[in-house]
Fold:
Amino acid sequence: MSGHGDPIPMTSRAGGALSGEAHVPGDKSISHRSLILGAMAVGETKVSGLLEGQDVLDTGRAMQAFGAEVINHGGGNWSVHGVGVGGFAEPSQVIDCGNSGTGVRLIMGAMATSPITATFTGDASLNGRPMGRVTDPLALFGTQSYGRKGGRLPMTIVGAANPAPVRYTVPMPSAQVKSAVLLAGLNAPGETVVIEKEATRDHSERMLVGFGANLSVDDSNEGRVITLTGQPELKPQTITVPRDPSSAAFPVCAGIVAPGSDVLVPGIGLNPTRAGLFTTLQEMGADLTFENMREEGGEPVADLRAKFSDNMQGIEVPPERAASMIDEYPVLSVVAAFATGKTVMRGVKELRVKESDRIDAMARGLEACGVTIEEDEDTFTVHGMGVGGVPGGGTCATHLDHRIAMSFMVLGLGTQKPVHIDDGGPIATSFPIFEDLMRGLGATITRD
Ligand SMILES: O=C(O)C1=C[C@@H](OP(=O)(O)O)[C@@H](O)[C@H](O)C1
Ligand SMILES: C=C(OP(=O)(O)O)C(=O)O
Structure:
């Protein structure tokens, strides 16, 4: 939804140890894809553990506007009656994707090779984000797009009536762009090939195979070469959505920075294309352990145990790790403030085109809390002050960005003075139970 309610100022403060279990919601990336691929299959897809955050709810509503039936059975159980590849109806209203880059970019791809026209919009954050990265490759299929200057929403997409298959090398590490091209390729006859130089999250590839598409991945000198045969009949699936590692990051990092803590975060998906934060935390010397490692639904899963860590060292986070933890840099920069020495995050310029410019948002908020940072276009450095050494006391602007809001709430759990945010409202886009879950662990997070 593009309407954003009154701001919700919030405060977090150090208040002793966190303990207990944190059951985080379903994976956001997989939830979006479950609804979109369910809508493109023939018959009923059943989804349990769907993330009921606003971003995913907006995608569900969009799929209904394109003619699929999306039903909430309660308790995280949903079903989608799909209309088949090429079966989308033309929506009679503007499609409002709210705050969600994943939602709008994947849906644009999914409708781009059907002979229908749709207009997309979002909130002030989404309407400021670049869509050219998706509409450029979609144009190769014959899709037309008419947006605001700089390829911004609101934007009208005119689907290609006679799409040609495409061979496309994604110029930036982006699972959204890769996925948009693959979804468009579904309704183009012949083979669509997408090449990515750096591996990004591979949920689209795994799920397309699960839905019965003919898709192969080859590692070559060019990178990962993904070949998809167009115009399959997708078979409906029964999907159990794993718990989101990007949401798990918040209680995990809270356990690491709040003195005396011992937090268990069970059943977290550890797909290697998503797990970079946990590797990084261990390299810094955080007391993080993987318990009960297992496979669920073809994905590695573990229970994460995070304990207060008073002896972390700053490290260099290599650029080749960026894609596997792209949404976790804000909270990593918080943990880095409690380490000793510098943490240097390289190859992170994609952070500048998320819900906010995340380097700028974290830099300004950390500075307001007494932390020294350095930044250039592609690098973010945090000078650690050690446990007990971070002043806090600032009010941090969240810029309609859920991850910025949650990151600063984690910061305040270990600082000398409380940390304030101007607006916690965006948290509901990805982690609607964040406040209750954190309070359940013993965190002092209040609405002002
Ligand atoms: O494909 C996805 O589900 C996502 C891809 C990433 O975006 P980019 O593709 O822009 O890197 C990530 O930041 C986003 O939260 C979810
Ligand atoms: C970048 C994110 O989401 P999106 O691009 O879907 O808005 C995120 O959830 O951190």
Residues 137 and 181 are 7 Å apart (CA to CA). The longest strand covers residues 287-296. The chain has two domains: 10-26+242-447, 28-240.
